Amino acid sequence: MARGRGHPALGKIVALLGAMLLAACSTVVPRAPAPPAPPPQTTEPGLDKGLPVDTARHRVALLVPMSGANAGVGRSIANATTMALLDTRTERLRITTYDTGKGAAAAAQRAVAEGNKLILGPLTADEVKAAAPIARAASVPIISYSNDVSVAGQGVYLLGYMPEQSIARIVAYARSRGLNNFAALVPKGVYGERAGSAFLSRVKAAGGTVVAMETFDRSAGSVQAAVKRLAASSSYDALLIADAGRIALQAGPLVRSSGGADARILGTELWNAESGLVGNAALRGAWFASVSDGLYRTLAGKYRTSYGAAPYRLASLGYDSVLLAVRIAADWKPGTAFPTARLGDPEGFAGIDGAFRFNRVGVAERNLEVQQIGASDITVIDAAPRGFEK
């Protein structure tokens, strides 16, 4: 990822965003027993005549699961979008929530029928596949929270965190610190296939050498067997564990006792959500690349005050999608088609998770920081650039 100089406008937006969040935190909101669905965004049951006419605000649909297995994530995102509307004090957007837990296609059909000109969400690639043809037929763009690049393009834009980007960042940093022989542990499945492919290509591009790569199926026995195969195959001075932090916690001690005592352990963006990494002796000194947590911690604190519970980490995507819509709404006439061309701004956008911009395919490119796990905390050892090279 390019390490270009920060763009002045982006820097000002980031500073303003931080000040806005801090100012908003001074308002105490009564605690609730559980994060509720935000009333301003929820459509009324049985509504069969569409939404009331609103010529002053842009109609934006939020497609997230409010029921089913992912309801907790969906509720966090929905609540975060409400927070963003309140924090920006915008009067130009009207956001209505549609439950994809009852079917993404049905949610998209209703959103389009009720006149929404932009869709935020859905959450998963399968939901995007169901909603995209409906939105595309109505010329309504989708800004999804998925990270599956296979569904991007033709009016679908992805805000999710891409494993390819975090792997590129951590491999480049490791090479800059003199590490040359790389090994990897990658899970079986789509994420693992993407991570493995990115690992091979990025190590080669950085001038390093891949000495081994092993797969596992996330069971304890499979992880142990994969680590043993690594020990028998070759020596390495850097090991990427391309999976969630809980897998790193399992694999780390095995690596240290099976030929990787001195290796630098590397991780991906998935480690960002694992609090148990701090203080783990086997992972002490490990590096991973991720979006910054600085503004997110402020958002999470305000969320807990407002809703009485901690948000899911993906809540920041909901917040940032609203910031993006608010920024573009300044030059967007209500009732007209969303100005999709504005999403291609090469200077990018600012949000809770830092600077990002959409590439030609519609995938969010992010500037990531490198963090190091310590005995009592996680520290930033290489900050994310503030902007992008054109």
Structural commentary:
- The chain folds into 2 domains: 8-161 and 294-358, Response regulator (Rossmann fold), CATH 3.40.50; 163-290 and 371-382, Rossmann fold, CATH 3.40.50.
- With 390 residues, the protein is of the alpha/beta class.
- The longest helix is centred in the first third of the chain and has 18 residues, at 71-88.
- The strands form 3 sheets. Strands 7-6-8-9-10-13-14 form a 7-stranded mixed β-sheet, with helices on both faces.
- Helices cover 37% and strands 17% of the residues.
Task: Give a nutshell description of this structure.
The protein is α/β, with parallel strands linked by helices. The protein has helices at residues 8-24, 71-88, 104-113, 125-137, 163-176, 190-205, 220-233, 245-256, 294-307, 315-329, and strands at 58-64, 93-99, 118-120, 142-144, 156-158, 181-187, 209-216, 238-241, 264-267, 287-290, 356-358, 364-366, 369-373, 378-382.
SSE arrangement:
Elements: H1 8-24, E1 58-64, H2 71-88, E2 93-99, H3 104-113, E3 118-120, H4 125-137, E4 142-144, E5 156-158, H5 163-176, E6 181-187, H6 190-205, E7 209-216, H7 220-233, E8 238-241, H8 245-256, E9 264-267, E10 287-290, H9 294-307, H10 315-329, E11 356-358, E12 364-366, E13 369-373, E14 378-382
Parallel strand pairs: 1-2, 1-3, 3-4, 4-5, 6-7, 6-8, 8-9, 9-10
Antiparallel strand pairs: 10-13, 11-12, 13-14
Helix pairs in contact: 1-9, 2-10, 3-4, 5-6, 7-8
